[in-house]
Design goal:
With 252 residues, this protein is of the alpha+beta class. Helix content is 25%, strand content 39%. The strands form 4 sheets. Strands 1-3-6-5 form a 4-stranded antiparallel sheet, with no helix packed on it. A 4-stranded mixed sheet has the order 2-8-7-4, with no helix packed on it. A 4-stranded antiparallel sheet has the order 9-11-14-13, with no helix packed on it.
Amino acid sequence: MKALKDTIHSHSRKLFALVLLGLMVLFTFSLPALADDDVKPSKILAAGKKTITVTAGSEFHLRVRTRPYDADEDFLKWSITSGSKYVRFDDDDRSDDEIELRARKKGTAKITCSIRGTKKKVTFTVKVREAKTPQKKIKIYGPATRTVESGDDFELKIKKYRGLKDRYLQWSIQDPDVIRFDDDDRRDDEVEFYAKKAGTTKISCKNTQTGQTVTFTVKVVRGQDDWDDRYDHDDHDDWDDRYDHDDHDDWD
């Protein structure tokens, strides 16, 4: 019986030793796999151009490559080494192989990505140019030169661009003796006028938001009413006076 117990204990010890040995071998072979997560980069390169041009207000990305390719990104550190008033980070993660930034205004900035604990780095030059905004203009609607008759009402109109409020429009008449406003609302894209007498004058509409001015040239010609008044008060009276004081006396 004792011999049997000794044999069992001997086998148990051998089995335990084999299991322990297997665990040690498994742990040993798994070490490199665990260590790969902490591989430190030995080299850093720019992924793409090191000098780029961007537009103010736009977002852009910078990217680097490391050797070995599977090195831990936590060893990387991004920083704006100069020109922080021209660009800013648009990403909280500064330990990555790619960083997102935003261009603020015209100027040149330097952005660096380095390997922590080393002097190895790559520096990008970012040139920020001004954003080109389309020039917004008001335009004359219809012909810029008009001819109207005295005594007539007429309208002048301009074309607004989207978003322009009427309150920014300011109309003016160069010679108010020839033409006057016929509408109390003078801050509109369409305004009414009254032709007072024959003559030529200019009527302008100014965009006070931008300072741009467009100008109409309006010629007022004598209207039918003027001719009737002239006949009634001048020529007709002359003929009547001539008949009354000259010809009629001769006949008598």
